[in-house]
Design a protein that fits this description.
Blueprint (H helix, E strand, L loop, with lengths): L1 H17 L47 E4 L7 E2 L3 E8 L2 E2 L9 E8 L17 E4 L5 E4 L4 E10 L11 E8 L2
Parallel strand pairs: 2-9, 4-5
Antiparallel strand pairs: 1-3, 3-7, 5-6, 5-8, 8-9
Pfam family, one: DUF4399
Protein name: DUF4399 domain-containing protein
InterPro entries: DUF4399 (IPR025512)
Length: 175
Amino acid sequence: MKKFLFAPAVLLIGLISCNSGTGNESSSSDSTSSQNDTTTMQADSSHTAMNTTTMDALPAVPAGAKVYFKNLKDGQTVSSPLKVEMGATNISVDSAGTIKQNSGHFHIIIDDGDSTASGVVVRKDSTHLHFGNAQKEATVTLSPGKHRLALQFADGIHRSYGSKLSEAITLNVKK
């Protein structure tokens, strides 16, 4: 009985912590982009309540799927604020809220590792930025110096696909 109650309790704690952010970590500065591709981080409505008595399995990663930074390269020197363009191949970028096969959404992890473990809900805080409205670009402010950015893909309820769908790079932010 204790084991049966433990999993829903852990999931509930993860969802609560995932929804503790203000939802306005970044904003887009490119007015020519479509609304679907911008990061007007309104209250991220994708952190929805779910039935904790049932849990769908993490969808399989499609063959050949990958995520990548479209406009940034490892070791690049950049200015802040920084425009980040996110890309995905062989998997659809979709809004969070429901679990759909062959789809998910982006997260950017700043200076906190190269990925979140597979199946773990990606935290939502100042170093774990969520793009649950299917955004494909963001403007991120970084202090001068060296920073590690990880692009992490997750399913509709923010469970990470792990290192299979992540890319990490190091950037040098000039003063």
